C-alpha cells in the first residue's frame, strides 16, 4: 500500500527538521511526504529534497483545514493509497508508518498514541520511546493491538491515518474553519455520522515536541468563537467547552442564547 505522510506547517522549522529525521528512521519508510507551507517561504530550505513542498497562501487565520486537504490532494494525485497526517510538532516513533500501514483498511479512521515531551533544546530520537507518556484521556494500546474507540470526540489531528477511498468518501476537512480549533472535531463528527469507526493503533506512536502554550488559549479566543459557531451550526452543539468555560470564568465570553459571544 503506497503511503504518504502529510504535514502542514507555518513556522516551527526546528520541529519540522526533527520530524523529517524521525521519518528518515522509520522501519517502513513512507513512500511520499507532502509538506504544505502555509504562507511560509522558509519551509523549502528546511525540507530540501526530503519531501515535496506545497505553497499555500495564508492570512492571519491559518487555513489548517484547507492545507490538509491540499496536501492530501497532492499525495493522492501521486498515487497514495494511505494518508498519514502528522502534526509538525510530532516526531514519529520508528514504527509509526509501519503500524499504520499494517492496520490500514477502508472504512475506518485510525489514530496512534501521542506523548507530550518535556522542554528541551533538542531530542535524541534513539531515546524517545523511553519518554513515552501517552495522553491520559486517550487509549494507548500495546504494540500490535488495534482497539476500537468508543467516543469520536477523542479524535485529534496530531496523528491519524485514513485510506484514500475513505478520505474521498468523507470529503476531507471542512474549509469553513480557519485558525485555531474545531476542524478536527468536525472531521471526527463527519466520520461518526458516516458510520466510519475510530480505532487506536498500538505502536503508531508519536512524540509531541514542547512549545509554549496558553491555558486557556486567550490569543485564539476569536478563532474559538468563530469556529465554534460554525461547528454549532453544522452539528447542533458547541465544541471546545472546556476553553469556553475557562474564558467565561475570566470574563472574556458570555452566553448568548444557545451560543457564546465575546464579553
UniProtKB/TrEMBL annotation:
Q: Which UniProt keywords apply?
A: Glycosyltransferase, Transferase
Pathway, according to UniProt? Answer: Cell wall biogenesis; cell wall polysaccharide biosynthesis
SUPFAM superfamilies with a match to the protein in the record: Nucleotide-diphospho-sugar transferases
UniProt GO MF annotations = glycosyltransferase activity
Q: Which domain of life is it from?
A: Bacteria
Q: InterPro entries from the entry?
A: Nucleotide-diphossugar_trans
Record-stated family = Belongs to the glycosyltransferase 2 family.
Q: What is this protein called?
A: Glycosyltransferase, GT2 family
Q: Which organism is it from?
A: Klenkia marina
Amino acid at each position: 500500500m503506497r503511503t504518504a505522510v502529510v504535514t502542514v506547517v507555518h513556522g516551527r522549522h526546528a520541529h519540522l527538521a526533527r520530524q523529517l529525521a524521525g521519518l528518515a528512521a522509520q522501519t517502513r519508510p513512507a513512500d511520499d511526504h507532502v509538506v504544505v507551507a502555509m504562507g511560509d517561504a522558509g519551509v523549502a530550505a528546511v525540507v530540501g529534497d526530503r519531501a515535496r513542498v506545497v505553497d499555500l497562501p495564508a492570512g492571519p487565520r491559518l487555513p489548517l483545514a484547507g492545507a490538509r486537504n491540499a496536501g492530501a490532494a497532492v499525495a493522492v494525485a501521486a498515487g497514495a493509497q494511505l494518508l498519514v497526517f502528522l502534526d509538525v510538532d510530532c516526531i514519529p516513533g520508528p514504527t509509526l508508518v509501519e503500524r499504520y500501514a499494517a492496520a490500514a483498511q477502508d472504512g475506518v479512521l485510525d489514530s496512534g498514541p501521542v506523548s507530550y515531551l518535556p522542554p528541551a533544546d533538542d531530542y535524541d530520537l534513539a531515546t524517545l520511546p523511553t519518554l513515552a507518556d501517552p495522553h491520559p484521556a486517550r487509549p494507548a494500546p500495546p504494540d500490535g493491538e488495534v482497539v476500537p474507540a468508543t467516543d469520536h470526540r477523542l479524535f485529534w489531528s496530531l496523528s491519524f491515518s485514513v485510506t484514500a477511498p475513505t478520505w474521498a468518501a468523507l470529503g476531507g476537512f471542512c474549509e469553513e474553519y480557519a485558525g485555531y480549533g474545531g476542524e478536527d472535531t468536525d472531521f471526527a463528527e463527519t466520520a461518526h455520522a458516516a458510520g466510519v469507526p475510530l480505532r487506536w493503533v498500538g505502536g503508531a506512536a508519536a512524540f509531541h515536541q514542547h512549545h509554549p502554550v496558553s491555558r486557556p488559549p486567550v490569543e485564539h479566543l476569536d478563532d474559538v468563537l468563530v469556529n465554534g459557531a460554525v461547528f454549532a451550526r453544522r452539528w447542533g452543539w458547541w465544541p471546545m467547552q472546556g476553553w469556553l468555560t475557562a474564558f467565561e470564568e475570566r470574563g472574556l465570553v458570555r452566553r448568548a442564547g444557545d451560543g457564546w459571544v465575546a464579553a
